[in-house]
Amino acid sequence: MVHLFMDVEDPINPLADDAALDLARLFTEAGVRGNFCVTGEKCRTLVARRRTDVLDALAPHCLGLHTDTHSVHPTTMELLADVAFEEGARLAYLAEKRGFDAFAAAFGRPPAFWGGAGNTWSPEITDALGRLGIPAYVYALTELPDRCAHRFNGVLAFTQHLSVSEDDWADDDRAARRCAEVLHEVSRRRTDCLCVFVGHPTRFRHERFWDAPYAGGRTPARPEPAKSVEDRVYEHAKANLASFLRGIAQIGRPIGLDDVLRLPWRFESPDEASLAVFRDRTAANLQAVVHWPIHRPGLDPAGIVAKTLALSNTLQVARLDEKGAKGADPSR
């Protein structure tokens, strides 16, 4: 089963609202149910700007919480890097509860999942998700062989497998090549859940990410708006995404993660080889994402790595019942 993800997070540039509206409608018109990760701050912004059209366009899709404020300091890793697990769990819950409340107020329903911002993470997040009733997290930095779905500290985790960048979408030749590669991979892989990231609405419309002013730990009083791309570039990017959506719908229609979460799952204890992969790959992932440009200089991930590996005993391999998988995926 294939799941397509987009991150809706820019609270600064109004054109990003229009881009989210356009792209959500593209998915709907293609008959593809997307998975949109929306920050709490973006929810508050859309409500304050009275952009009910954007909220309505997103509503038919599967929606997740993309942290409360994404790149506003402290980031998730900055908040939790230097505290013990118990204090971190308290801080994580307070931070994500703000986002949860904003999301629920905007959409009238709870988020189906949680997605880390900039791939930052700490294991206390799973404790907060359990308390908030959010059953899964995506862009998981916890990793098993083949990046398979797993349960960690009581929460289902899904790792990103493939992606197409905004720079790819904006260039017809690059888009054609990359989409062909992704469609080939989707058609040949047979996995319970194949997660494909297809971009950020704000980067379809702007030359840089909205959060560049927050790089290196900075917190500007008035973040500088991003420069928009030419309209023709934006239209090319949208057309290329629309073509991709039509193509992937022919291989096996992507579905919402919420639909899969309702199916029967079974859980198995990992073998020693899988545990070794988990320890090595998870530690490497956490050490790598500390270099996200937004983070403050000198951020040390050692504490987060240690807290994560200390919960290895909670790890379970997640498998979908074959009958349930066939019922959810028309390509099987």
Describe the fold and architecture.
The chain has one domain (2-328): TIM Barrel (Alpha-Beta Barrel). Helices cover 47% and strands 13% of the residues. The chain contains 14 helices and 11 strands. It has helices at residues 14-29, 40-48, 52-58, 76-80, 85-107, 124-132, 166-170, 172-188, 201-205, 231-251, 257-261, 272-289, 302-309, 322-328; strands at residues 2-8, 35-38, 62-65, 114-115, 136-138, 150-152, 155-158, 160-163, 194-197, 265-268, 316-320. The N and C termini lie close together (8 Å).
Observed structural traits:
single chain, 332 residues, alpha/beta, TIM Barrel, 6-stranded mixed β-sheet, 5-stranded parallel β-sheet, 13% strand
Q: What is the CA-CA span between the terminal residues?
A: 8 Å
Which class of secondary structure composition applies to the elements?
A: alpha/beta
Query: What series of H and E elements makes up the topology?
Result: EHEHHEHHEHEEEEHHEHHHEHHEH
The number of distinct structural domains comes to: 1
CATH architecture: Alpha-Beta Barrel
* The CATH H-level homologous superfamily: Glycoside hydrolase/deacetylase
Main beta-sheet strand count, sense and barrel state: 6 strands, mixed
The CATH C-level class name: Alpha Beta
Number of strands: 11
> Order of strands in the sheet with the most strands?
4-5-7-6-11-10
Shape, per Cα inertia axes: globular
Give the helix proportion (percent range): 40-55%
Number of helices: 14
